[in-house]
Amino acid sequence: MKSMKNSENKILTVYNTSKELEEAKIDTAILPVGSIEQHGPHLPLGTDWIIVQEVAKRLAEKIGNCYLLPAIPYSNSQEHLEFCGTVSIRPSTLAQTIRDIVLSLYLHGIKKIVIISGHGGNWIIKPTIRELNLEYPDLKVIHGGPMGKKPVDVHAGEHETSCMLYLNEKWVRKDKIVDCVPDATQEYLDYVGMKGVTKYGPWGLASRASKEKGKKIIETRAEKIAEYVKETFRKLEEIERSTPRRSIIPKPYEKG
To answer: Given this model, what pLDDT does residue 246 score?
Structure first.
């Protein structure tokens, strides 16, 4: 993704130079987190990674003046490991990766960071954000949240299939779509993994997907995250003015 600019906003990416980023004096970054895991017989392994990058790009366009980072492709996908092609890293590895990225940005004056996850299994992100904020009082890291889904639409169902149809219809194997709504709750993923509750991988009604639904899902999600991000940063600055923050947890890194 190349640098995007208009008359009001600067959106810098890894296609910019170090000097360009320094001169832009940007203090906000967006870090998307995806996953590489099975998405049934009809969707690509990189579905979460693909969708979250698109949402992040649209978010950057809405908030402006930010550094849009490439999405982390790997995350915690242990529940999908019985399916070929799934790549999972430990929650502690993901947490440390996020910490290192955030603190690298912090060293260069980028202290407002939005993390958005395209994979619902990345529970470790929230405690990692909490820890960073409590260690570094002048850091504001917020969670833009995972992609919202209906209770029966857990994985590779109507929601994700619609998004992929909208982004590129060729990526969806329409002749291989399978509907599956297991007689179980999501807690069973902790007990037996995805293959224990759904033989083919999906959990949802992918046959109900459409390109039009995908367009609405992505546009609405980006808009809602943008509203949340703007309001949260505004509120945090208001709190900071009335109640100066201090470090609660000892900092392992200090700017030299």
So the answer is: 75
Here the tokens at position 222 are 């980006």
Q: How many CB atoms lie within 10 A of CB 119?
A: 24
Query: What's the pLDDT score for residue 7?
Result: 42
Domain that residue 58 falls in: 4-242
Residues of the chain with pLDDT under 50: 6-7, 255-256
Rounded CA-CA distance 44/39 in Å is 6
**Given this model, what pLDDT does residue 37 score?**
98
Instruction: Please work out, in degrees rounded to the nearest 5, the angle formed at the alpha carbon of residue 32 by the alpha carbons of 26 and 37.
Output: 165
Q: What is the CATH number of the domain that holds 92?
A: 3.40.50.10310
Domain count for the chain: 1
Kindly report the number of other CB atoms within 10 A of residue 157's CB atom.
27
Residue 129 one-letter amino acid: I
Q: Is residue 248 part of a domain?
A: no
Which pLDDT score, from 0 to 100, does residue 256 have?
45
